[in-house]
UniProtKB/TrEMBL annotation:
The keyword Metal-binding applies. It comes from the Eukaryota. This is 3-methyl-2-oxobutanoate dehydrogenase (2-methylpropanoyl-transferring). GO terms for biological process: branched-chain amino acid catabolic process. Residues 73-95 are annotated as: Disordered. GO terms for molecular function: branched-chain 2-oxo acid dehydrogenase activity; metal ion binding. Pfam families: E1_dh. Its EC number is 1.2.4.4. It comes from Oldenlandia corymbosa var. corymbosa. Belongs to the BCKDHA family. GO terms for cellular component: mitochondrial matrix. Its cofactor is thiamine diphosphate. Heterotetramer of alpha and beta chains. It is found in: Mitochondrion matrix.
Length: 486
């Protein structure tokens, strides 16, 4: 192999010789002036007419090779020529645009999954006691009690609204049973200016921000007081006032939107962040990966919260992915991540509070995986006992209830009592029933509102559709709800 004094020259020579072989050339004028070398292979070849070149082993004597002579340019692996083995080459690297990469002579494959699973941040044990050595975010009595009443409110509302659907009073419903701590505690850690893009098990966030039970009921019944004017499915809440984007049924579509919204906050230099929620099933969608990559590359203040409740409708996590849950995916995209006990309200509050501060101060995304369990059916269209046991459900409902655990801690601090518990549940039940009764009696939106709020100037095709619909209703009045003004 041609010998050059400096390492950079040796590397340059190697590249020139390899390039020439790939080009299939058989002539060489000068290593410094041409890429042409013998095409006879790696063991050498015959030079043809042209200038001579200098070759020789490292530390050896140079010699001229003239036309017609043969020379071994690339010694075989068995060659004792020390020029074939450079120990210092091992430490060489490549200054790649994404960062310097160090070379290694070993074939090192990254493990498919670490044997040691990522630990789960927890503050309260199952009996509501603070775990020794826990890093705790301080919570005032006012906030602590509000968090508890919020979880009980969501639980009560879910139970009654679910029964209302079973009675045929609303068309669809979906609960947050067993996951109440994630919505309420994460909301408590946010500020009003933070923008929320939810999935569909985050009514607790909206409740915390001031959405009333009556507003929840109006949306589920689709009456004229509903902000969506009855044009959305039940539980697809939204509130511009509370920076809570309207829920959409397609899974994970809100995640890339969240990255974009966070980019706008960054451009406006606002001291706020975007918080986007999804479930474990949502992370199996391509939008999840697109969102994380976009957020990381653009360095935007967004907190992605994944409720890993073990089930994507009827598909368990074991059939969704082989990685250590969701938390490890953040690292692949260059995002700091944390796993938290989603049934521990204090842990969720602390994790989201810190994640929010990091996202805003550093203008970078954060991924939070909250481990929990979906106690209820996926929705009123599902019977989860077809794919999981009743015993499994009951275990999580009783032994690992986030509400029961948090209540023990609040009550142990002297901020709650059995009397307050009885009073709270009675009052909330009464308020929810009243909200349902009023929402049920409230008139539905008029038919023409089905076609409004999209175009400023009403297009002809929509006029034709409205006319056709009215004619259909006149021909088949028995098939149209009598309480909707035509």
């Amino acid at each position: 192999m041609a010998h050059l004094i400096s390492k950079s020259r040796r590397l340059l020579e190697k590249r020139i010789l390899f390039s020439a072989i790939l080009d299939g050339r058989s002539k060489v004028s000068s290593v410094f002036q041409s890429r042409m070398i013998p095409a006879a292979g790696f063991c050498g070849g015959k030079l043809e007419a042209g200038d001579t070149i200098l070759v020789g082993p490292r530390g050896g004597r140079f010699k001229s090779i003239k036309s017609g002579e043969q020379v071994q340019f690339f010694p075989s692996s068995s060659s004792s020529d020390e020029d074939d083995h450079h120990d210092d080459d091992i430490t060489e690297g490549l200054d790649f645009p994404g960062g310097r990469v160090t070379f290694t002579p070993q074939k090192s494959f990254i493990s498919e999954s670490s044997a040691k699973r990522v630990p789960c941040y927890r503050v309260l044990d199952d009996d509501g006691y603070i775990i020794r050595g826990s890093e705790i975010e301080q919570v005032s009595k006012e906030v602590a009690v509000k968090m508890y009443t919020g979880m009980v409110t969501i639980q009560t509302m879910d139970n009654i609204f679910y029964e209302a659907q079973r009675q045929g009073r609303i068309s669809f419903y979906l609960t947050s049973s067993g996951e109440e701590a994630i919505g309420i505690a994460s909301a408590a850690a946010l500020m009003p200016d933070d923008v929320v893009l939810p999935q569909y098990r985050e009514p607790g966030v909206l409740l915390w921000r001031g959405f009333t039970l009556q507003e929840f009921a109006n949306q589920c019944f689709g009456n004229k007081q509903d902000y969506g004017k009855g044009r959305q499915m039940p539980i697809h809440y939204g509130s511009k006032k509370h920076n809570y984007m309207t829920i959409s049924s397609p899974i994970a579509t809100q995640l890339p939107q969240a990255a974009g919204a966070a980019y706008s906050l960054k451009m406006d230099k606002k001291e706020a962040c975007v918080v986007a929620y999804t479930g474990d099933g949502g992370t199996s969608e391509g939008d999840f990966h697109a969102a994380l990559n976009f957020a990381a590359v653009m360095e935007v203040p967004v907190v992605f919260i994944c409720r890993n409740n073990g089930w994507a409708i009827s598909t368990p996590t074991t059939e969704q992915f082989r990685s250590d849950g969701i938390v490890v995916r953040g690292q692949a995209y260059g995002i700091r991540s944390i796993r938290v006990d989603g049934n521990d309200a204090l842990a969720v509050y602390g994790a989201i509070s810190t994640a929010r501060k990091m996202a805003i101060s550093e203008k970078k995304p954060i991924l939070v995986e909250a481990l929990t369990y979906r106690v209820g059916h996926h929705s009123t269209s599902d019977d989860s006992t077809k794919y999981r046991t009743v015993n499994e459900i009951e275990h999580w409902k009783t032994a690992r209830s986030p509400i029961a655990r948090y209540r023990k801690w609040v009550q142990r601090n002297g901020w709650w009592s059995d009397e307050a518990e009885s009073q709270l549940r009675g009052d909330i039940r009464k308020q929810v029933l009243q909200a349902i009764q009023l929402a049920d009696r409230t008139e539905k939106p008029p038919l023409e509102q089905l076609f409004t709020d999209v175009y400023e100037d009403f297009p002809s095709n929509l006029r034709e559709q409205e006319k056709s619909l009215r004619e259909t209703i006149r021909r088949h009045p028995q098939d149209y709800p009598p309480d909707v003004p035509v």
